[in-house]
Q: What sequence folds into this?
């Protein structure tokens, strides 16, 4: 199950990356960047880098939950916090120190996501935790349905939160 979930997360992340890259400008407009040329330029710059992190983000979330389900909350927390802290440290370095602006913020997030992902991946298989084993990867409809059913409630909750939070921003953005 862990290997199937991990592989599906990377595959879905890759599809989101590819589609996001193809439809970069419409995605930026959807996010409210059509207000000005400067905002569009900054949003595209941010999205171009951020989309690279999607497969790592999704795979890290799978690993985080796999570790938590095994009772290794400490390992899962360390993996997620390490990436977040690295992002916090790198943000001012890239944005202010290297004068990279929003691209620097996106790059700091990307580096944090990749490092957090690698740390979580390293924590699987240690201390009795189940490792991601591609030799055991044999997707079947029963397991895929179970994974989707288990993740659907959280996906819907996150989607509703994103849409409700984003719709207020879009309304405000169009008035400016």
A:
């Amino acid at each position: 199950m862990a290997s199937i979930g991990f592989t599906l997360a990377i595959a879905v992340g890759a599809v989101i990356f590819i589609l996001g890259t193809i439809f970069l400008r419409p995605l930026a407009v959807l996010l409210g960047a059509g207000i000005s040329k400067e905002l569009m330029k900054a949003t595209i710059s941010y999205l171009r880098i951020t989309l690279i992190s999607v497969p790592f983000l999704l795979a890290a979330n799978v690993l985080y939950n796999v570790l938590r389900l095994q009772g290794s909350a400490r390992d899962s927390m360390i993996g997620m916090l390490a990436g977040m802290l690295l992002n916090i440290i790198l943000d001012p370095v890239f944005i202010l120190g290297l004068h990279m602006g929003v691209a620097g913020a996106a790059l700091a997030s990307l580096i944090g996501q990749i490092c957090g992902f690698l740390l979580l991946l390293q924590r699987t298989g240690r201390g009795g935790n189940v490792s991601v084993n591609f030799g055991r990867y044999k997707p079947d409809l029963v397991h895929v349905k179970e994974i989707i059913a288990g993740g659907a409630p959280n996906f819907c909750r996150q989607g509703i939160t994103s849409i409700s939070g984003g719709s207020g921003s879009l309304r405000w953005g169009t008035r400016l």
